[in-house]
Write a structure and sequence with these properties.
- With 268 residues, this protein is mainly alpha-helical.
- It has one domain.
- It is built from 10 helices and 5 strands, in the order ααααββαβααββααα.
- Strands 3-4-5 form a 3-stranded antiparallel sheet.
- The longest helix has 23 residues.
- The two termini are 34 Å apart.
- 31% of the residues are buried.
Length: 268
């Protein structure tokens, strides 16, 4: 009986975790739905990329009006949108990928909606943080971590001109977050995971999502122009690092959670 009860407990826990993850992923899920619809349905005189931007904007307005998203979270979305758009403009100019379709709302050949693809990652982290009451145990000095995240983001630009330091950052990462675990709550059960492992898992799922996005023509890599093919697995490392940057930004804004974390850590 105890075994059955325990199994039922973990099964219900898994269901609740899946529900909270789905709610946290609502913005990216709606973006994917928009990509799929825009691939199948065309609106006269409205370019597809512009349609996607309008829908993303309406989603954000709806989130604010229904209080699904707080004003602080919306501000974070705007920050991620700007960071992502800057990176997109640079990458497109360097020929890393392209947006071949027509759009009125383009900046230097990059549709404005593209920033929402990065913002969706920030949205997921913000929502998961709120819904699962995330705490960071033994988190390093936030200023030091913010500097480390800035170097990772800068490398997305500088590796086109100098050495690509991504693998160096990945090697350093376990030492930076050697003792750090992420604590989260599902129902009344408190669970923990090493922070670096959570970075990798999120990056892996984003890579899977990227394959879906490129399949629906959100953007195209050079080897996908003739026909669609799976995004190179090496891109997982890029998303892995981008998740770290996104997480660090959100963590830096969560002052209360950080202070509570130190109280928990010091009491152990």
């Amino acid at each position: 009986m105890k075994t059955k009860t325990r199994f039922l407990h973990y099964f219900l826990l898994l269901i609740e975790f899946a529900v909270q993850e789905a709610l946290s992923c609502l913005f990216p899920l709606l973006i994917f739905a928009t990509l799929a619809i825009s691939k199948l349905v065309s609106i006269p005189y409205l370019p597809r990329y512009d349609f996607i931007f309008i829908v993303c904007l309406l989603i954000q307005i709806t989130f604010i009006m229904t209080k699904f998203e707080t004003k602080k979270e919306f501000l974070m979305i705007c920050i991620f949108h700007l960071i992502g758009l800057i990176l997109e403009i640079f990458k497109v100019r360097m020929g890393s990928w392209s947006y071949p379709e027509q759009s009125y709302l383009k900046i230097m050949d990059v549709p404005i909606y593209s920033g929402f693809m990065y913002a969706s990652v920030g949205s997921y982290i913000c929502q998961a943080w709120k819904r699962m009451h995330i705490q960071l145990i033994n988190y390093p000095n936030p200023i030091v971590v913010l500097f480390f995240g800035s170097l990772i983001y800068l490398n997305f630009f500088t590796h086109h001109y100098f050495y690509d330091l991504r693998w160096l950052f990945i090697l350093i990462l376990p030492f930076v977050f050697f003792k750090t675990t992420v604590q989260f709550k599902v129902k009344l059960t408190i669970l923990r995971m090493h922070l670096v492992l959570s970075f990798f898992l999120i990056g892996l799922f984003i890579w899977i999502a990227e394959n879906i996005a490129t399949f629906f023509g959100a953007w195209k890599y050079p080897d996908q122009h003739a026909h669609w093919q799976i995004v190179h697995v090496g891109k997982i490392s890029s998303w892995f690092l981008l998740v770290i940057v996104s997480f660090i930004i959100v963590a830096f804004s969560q002052k209360d959670a950080y202070n509570q974390t130190h109280e928990v850590s010091s009491s152990r």
